[in-house]
Amino acid sequence: MDFSWSDEQLTYRNAVIEFARKELSYDVMALDRDDQFPHDAWKKCANFGIQGLPFPEEYGGAEADIMTTMLTMEGLGYGCRDNGLIFAMNAQMWSVQMPILSFGTDEQKQKYLPGMCRGDIIGAHGMSEPDSGSDAYSLRTRAERVDGGYVLNGSKTFVTNAPVADVALVFASVNPARKMWGITGFLVEKGTPGFTIGKPIDKMGLRTAPMAELIFEDCFIPEENRLGPEGAGSNIFNDSMEWERSCILGSHVGAMERQIEEAVQYANEREQFGQSIGKFQSVANRIVDMKVRLETARLLLYKVAWLKKQGKPAVMEAALAKLYLSESFVQSGLDAIRTYGGYGYMTEFEVERNLRDAVGGMLYSGTSDIQRNIIARLMGL
Amino acid sequence: MDTQAILMDYIKKELMKGRNVDISPSDDLLGSGIIDSLGILQLVSFIEERFNFQVPDEDVVFENFFSVEALTNYLKNAQAAA
Ligand SMILES: Cc1cc2nc3c(=O)[nH]c(=O)nc-3n(C[C@H](O)[C@H](O)[C@H](O)COP(=O)(O)OP(=O)(O)OC[C@H]3O[C@@H](n4cnc5c(N)ncnc54)[C@H](O)[C@@H]3O)c2cc1C
After folding, report:
1. ipTM rounded to 2 decimals
2. How many angstroms from the chain centroid is the CA of residue A291?
3. Domains identified in chain A and CATH numbers
4. Comparing A40-49, A174-183, B14-23, which segment has the lowest mean pLDDT?
5. Under an 8 A CB cutoff, do B17 and A374 touch?
6. pLDDT score of A48
7. What is the pLDDT of residue B18?
8. Chain B contact for A103 (CB, 8 A cutoff)
9. What pLDDT was estimated at residue A138?
10. Which residue of A20, A33, A331, B60 has the fewest CB atoms within a 10 Å radius of its CB?
11. Is pLDDT above 80 for A55?
């Protein structure tokens, strides 16, 4: 067993932290308040190489392996205070770019991947519907086969990036009787007749990552825009969930590490009853618990990335990591607020935003309950 | 054990744990509720480990995973081609 990183991997991590501190130090508070997407920052990240990190060089990527990618995401989470931007990038990278790379035709890869790596094309992923969330495969959006392609009817909700997206990977059934085997992926471009993007959806956290509904009314999609074979949609969806779980969580680890460092600093500086609050065991123990959670979460996550790098299945490990990390990030956000007292509750201190952002993590990519279901089943329960 | 017997054995012992339903190689695995979507995921992982064969993503479709019979045929052809 070897827990060390290579010099090259550490260089990536340190470079991204420096980049984030220099280039992504904009006023997140104002963007969060106004629900604004940081277009410039998106582009800067692409220029730095984030969106292209694990993708092949021929499509403008850097061909980093999953371990390096996850560590870089950790660095980004540590250096960049805008969890929404990181979430939006992850949503595109793992649930749009990666499926195109794994399932796309050469034409589809050429058409979308270089632009996404450059930050010129933004992608969204539409699976959830008003009546199907956790039970994703019960979706109702239909894709009816017609001459030369398909006609889509239905709607998608909670779609991250939708208001700014140029293309959406949308899942619809070509054969509802076949349940999950009918689900098929389609690449739908903005401006396609019959395809509309709803009004932005306001939300509790991750407010710089815009969200909206997608509506399809007799929307014709040519055959060449189908991603993968008919019926492969559920596997496309699963595949992207595993990448997404590993890498989004990487940035949570980085964010928690920053949160802890700042909490230690504050606890040492803030004085009450004639001494720094960090000298009170109750305060110190709480920060110790944050640290224990961070380090356990990190180990769970690294194991997932390691298994994936060996090409081994990691269904159980990915579920454990998703469950533990997302819940830990919420708890860490609460503990940070407790450490700062009233100041932690005030927006201006930029402590409470982490908690609001963290709550989404217990819901997207499968809620904590669903992760527990997966783990229970794999344990033989 | 041949491929079909190995698959039947895994499905009965691991995926249908505790459920006393008779299955035959031609039964619709998902449609008749023998396994669910997580079961399909487990089946893919099992195949990859047991047969040391990486199932290409685009092959996880109805035609290949409909029944144990279909899966056995798929594996025979895919392994021969590999
Ligand atoms: C910030 C954010 C971003 C998102 N981005 C996207 C996106 O880009 N694309 C997209 O398609 N979707 C996206 N989603 C939607 C997300 O995937 C769903 O919210 C999620 O799958 C849960 O579905 P639901 O909201 O319909 O809740 P429901 O499925 O209705 O769940 C409600 C409650 O019931 C519980 N529950 C449901 N079924 C079970 C069960 N079998 N066992 C135990 N408990 C159960 C849930 O855990 C939850 O507590 C996003 C969501 C959030 C919060």
Report:
1. 0.85
2. 23
3. 7-122 (1.10.540.10), 124-231 (2.40.110.10), 249-378 (1.20.140.10)
4. B14-23
5. no
6. 97
7. 64
8. yes
9. 94
10. A33
11. yes
Q: Output the CA angle A289-A291-A296, nearest 5 degrees.
A: 95
Nearest-CB residue to A374 (from B30, B31, B38): B38
Number of the ligand 1 atom closest to the C-alpha atom of A156: 11
Predicted confidence pLDDT, tens digits, chain B (82 residues): 799 999 999 998 888 876 767 889 999 998 888 888 889 988 998 998 899 888 988 899 999 999 999 999 999 998 888 7
Q: Look up residue A89 and give its two tokens.
A: 């990038």
Which of A179, A235, A239 is the best mutation test for B, with the most CBs of B within 10 A?
A: A235
Ligand 1 pocket, CB under 6 A: A 91, 125-128, 133-134, 158-160, 206, 360, 363-364, 367, 369-370, 373
Phi, psi of A66 (to 5 degrees): -65, -35
* pLDDT of A92 over the 80 cut: yes
Q: Count of domains in chain B? A: 1
Q: What amino acid occupies position A137?
A: Y
Instruction: Give the integer Cα–Cα distance in Å for A164 and A379.
Output: 41
Could you tell me the pTM of the whole model?
Answer: 0.95
Angle between helix A315-340 and helix A352-359 axes, rounded to 10 deg: 150
Amino acid in the structure at residue A298? R
* Residues of chain B contacting residue A108, judged by C-beta atoms under 8 Å apart: none
Between CA A12 and CA A24, with CA A18 as vertex, the angle to 5 degrees is 115
Residue A155 has pLDDT above 80, yes or no: yes
Q: Which residue has the tokens 């969580």?
A: A249
> Which of A364, A365, A372, A377 maximizes ligand 1 atoms within 8 Å of its Cβ, making it the mutation to test the pocket?
A364
- Cβ of A229 under 8 Å from any chain B Cβ? yes
Q: For A181, which of B38, B54, B62 is closest by C-beta distance? A: B62
**Full domain range(s) for residue B13:** 3-81
Q: Which residue is closest in CA terms to ligand 1's atom 24?
A: A133
CB A201 within 8 A of CB A213: yes
Alpha carbon A136 to chain centroid distance? 18
Q: Residue B75's domain is classified under what CATH number?
A: 1.10.1200.10
Report how far ligand 1's centroid is from the alpha carbon of A170 (Å): 17
- Measured over the CA atoms of residue A124, residue A129, residue A132 and residue A134, the dihedral's sign is positive
